[in-house]
Amino acid sequence: MPGDPESLALGALGWVLQDDDRAGRLLALTGLTPEILRDRLTERSVMAAVLDFLANHEPDLVLAADALNVAPETLVAARRALAAGGEAGA
């Protein structure tokens, strides 16, 4: 998995969406909708919101990092990089 923030966010989203309960929590806690994910997936604010969701729940952060073969801190750093480049949140 490439280490650029966008690729990490997309990989993390794919990991989140593999579990229905986790995907439901993502939508409930972030305010994202399936339509936003479909229409605005490549916007930095949307990608940052996905990583923010993981950063705010350490068990998921650790599991996602393991699945993506990166350190949890790498996902947190990617979230900061995405948020710095655009609006934070969706």
- Straight-line N-to-C gap: 24 Å
Shape: globular
Largest sheet: none
User: In total, how many beta strands?
Assistant: 0
Helix percent band: over 70%
Return the string of H and E elements: HHHHHH
Radius of gyration, taken over Cα atoms and rounded to an integer in Å: 11 Å
Strand content: under 5%
Q: What structural category arises from helix and sheet content? A: mainly alpha
List segments where confidence is low: pLDDT < 50 over at least 5 consecutive residues: none
- On the 0 to 100 scale, the average pLDDT is 92
Oligomer: single chain
In DSSP terms (H or I, runs of 4 or more residues), the helix count works out at 6
Structure description:
With 90 residues, this protein is mainly alpha-helical. Helix content is 74%, strand content 0%. The chain contains six helices and no strands. It has helices spanning 5-17, 20-30, 34-40, 44-55, 58-68, 72-84. Helix 1 crosses helix 4 (44-55), helix 1 (5-17) crosses helix 5 and helix 1 crosses helix 6 (72-84). The longest helix has 13 residues, at 5-17. It is globular and about 30 Å long. The model has no long low-confidence stretch (mean pLDDT 92).
